[in-house]
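Supplementary Methods S3. Input chains for the assembly prediction are listed below.
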Amino acid sequence: MLSQDNLRLALLSAYAIAIHGFEKLIPTPIPWLRFGLANIITLTAMVMYGFRAGMTITLIRVTVGSFFTGTFLGPAFLLSFGAGVVSTTSMGIVIKLMPRVFSPVGISLIGAMFHNITQLLLAYIVFIKRIEVVIILTPIILIIGILTGVMNGIVSGMLITGLNKYRSNDVNDVIVNP
Amino acid sequence: MKKKFIALIAVLSIFPALFSCNLGKEKIYKDSKIAMDTIVTINIVSNSKKNARLAASKAFGEIERLSSLINFYSDGSELSKINRNAGKKPVHVSPETMDLIKDSIVVAKKSGGAFDPTIGAISVLWDFQKKLIPGKRDISKRLKLVSYKNIIINEKKQTVYLRKKGMMIDLGGIAKGYAADRAIDILSSSGIKAAMVSVAGDIRAYGLKPDGKPWMVGIRDPRPVSATENILAALPLKNMAISTSGDYQRFFIKDGVRYHHLLIPWTGMPAGGCQSVSVIADKAVITDSFATAVFILGPEKGMRLLEKMGYGGVIVDYYGRVHITEGIKDKIEIKRPERKNHSG
Amino acid sequence: MRLRDLKGKITPADVILLFLLLAISISGLIFIDNVMPQGTEVIIDVNGKQVYMLPLNTDKSVKVKGPLGDTLVEIRDGKVRITESPCPNKICIKQGWIKRGAIVCLPNRIVVRVNSTKDGNRKVDAITG
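Predicted structure tokens for the full assembly:
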């Protein structure tokens, strides 16, 4: 059972890393617009397999992802790490304390907000150091968070609904043939 | 649940509406054009881009019209017609040209002839592009053609007559200020509540900026330390005008001597006492002409004239020392970086 | 299509949250639009330290040295942009021309700002002379 859990996490993490990498290839109209598609995997895993699964995937994604981009322990890594942990934690808390109050869309929104705000604050601390720049960027980043949060939440919700139908089946089948 | 989705879509559609509401607030619309052989910039405070554009185009139109009337160098202008008919016959002119010539005579009287619109006979001798110093004899021959007292105005017939053949009116020292004033008149009659017009360095401010503050105007440093630190001082302007005459505007240097366009009416040579003079008063037609007059009078006499007239002024003298009239000392903010005094 | 299944799962709390966040960000945008003045100066910071202050109305290109190398900043027609940057993602270049706000190049630690309101630094609307 334990090995199956690990296999599941490894696969989900691999998906997260792949999506994360793939996302960088998508051209966006605004440079600051990042979809945060990997959060779909984190959220889905958290809803289905619990907080620890979601957090593990986030940590693996951030760390291994930074090996690929060569930013491990650099400022970009710090931003991505901090934002990932805070965002995942915020979603975990919401699921734990207020189960069923929010649908995946709401949870994803909360995650996206915390992700973007943490990233902005960390950027302020380690690098920008100009409060007026942060003030200019905050609403823009919030709006981007709303867009991406809702989008990811919808995809996540669809995944969860779909996966729940296969709940009794072998997990490998689920992931290989979603 | 369907209702909520409709609500959601409604919210999203309000989005652009909210942004368009935002257009209702006042902004500064800035537009620049080449007119009167210089760059004219109009800043308009308005809550509508369309209104601002419309008002600006009217103001630009007025400046271009004025330019066509009083351009010293264009044969088609009324001013050229007056000059061509000097010593021959009076020339009928438009009310604007009449107005401006009358204003220039008033300033000439008040400045004791330091500002003289009939300097044209001398100023044509100087060519600052070709760096030519006119001969002493050429200048002295023409000096007798320079006197505002020989401009004969007939208000009833709306005519201007120059008494001596060869006399020439050059309104270069007053026309840009007048144009800035006219532009502001046009803007305010078009319903604009705040604006700033600068015709080259002749600036007239009207009303307050959208943030409720007066317009801030910088005075160019006649000898800047660097291209980026080129402001000597800055001061707020509320329903006032400012102009600057400087020896760096049109000049050439020959054998270590700086020859510039601010000519003394009684010698025909460039005035030597100042590097630059800025005058602050309620109208740009005043500041433009008085900046020239004060420059020609030099720092001491110029300062006395400013105080007597009750105008504000900033004089940078030949040695680079800055003199400021009492009335504006507490409003002005010196921006020039610290350095030793030196002459030009 | 499973989107239909999902519609039934949207909770009132989701909708309230969405409303709230929209309201906050829109009012934030309006607030900033009001507070941030139209700029007249370009300020370039490296590592949080100011290295350049240039007028926005004067066309100019400057080379700014960051930890990765030289970033080229161009000012033209009252706008500013980054034309060259040693950073890997080139996000700063893609951001293109700006008239207000800021361009941030994270890897090379460069911030190009248009006219901050920092400590009431009085800007000038026009120059006489």
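Residues 44 and 159 of chain A are 7 Å apart (CA to CA). Chains A and B do not touch (no CB pair under 8 Å).
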